[in-house]
Amino acid sequence: MTNxxxxxxIALSLFSSVMLPGCVVEDPQVVVPTxxxxxxxxxxxxxxxxxxxWRNPDLTRESVVIRxxxxxxxxxxxxxxxxxLTAEELAQSISERYKAFKENPxxxxxxxxxxxxxxxxxxxxxxxxxxxxxxxxxxxxAISMAxxxxxxxxxxxxxxxxxxxxxxxKHKEIRIxxxxxxxxxxxxxxxxxxxxxxxxxxxx
Length: 204
What we know:
- The protein has 204 residues and is of the alpha+beta class.
- It has two domains: 3-38 and 117-203, Roll (Outer membrane lipoprotein wza fold like), CATH 3.10.560; 48-113, wza like domain (wza like fold, 2-Layer Sandwich), CATH 3.30.1950.
- Helices cover 18% and strands 27% of the residues.
- The strands form three sheets. A five-stranded mixed beta sheet has the order 7-6-10-8-9. Strands 2-1-5 form a three-stranded antiparallel beta sheet. A two-stranded antiparallel sheet has the order 3-4.
- The chain is elongated, with a radius of gyration of 20 Å.
- The two termini are 29 Å apart.
């Protein structure tokens, strides 16, 4: 199934109020990507990073833990927003701030330890709870990690709750319905999307 055809079917289902097999986002303007994020891994609270300012050991910091507010502290420039940025974007942000003190500062950021990639599985699974992850994980893999369903689970009424930021900078919550039978079908790869940090799988 092509992406164009898939989006057309989603639009048709929203008008006819018929649930598609698989996953349909309740907000029709939100597209659920099936693969890893193209922009790369985005940093989050509790991630540990190294910040190297070339030829400036006094400004270099190792094993910096991103705080719960999403920021890190650097010499001279103070707090810097890190959460939500890629390592490259953070390096560019720090470099721009240091231009007030140094000509053409060269800054690199490397991820030392990933701790922010956690998801939650709740409801009728055998082992509900929070699951810290070290690699990209799909819906099916997360359900397996939670021990599978209980005998009372409504397998075709699963929802993935996700917090997103709109183009206007507003924070909102979307719910992505998922049908387990569709995940196991021949076209299951179209629906078995990769989870993002903070996603919550709810199995009623």
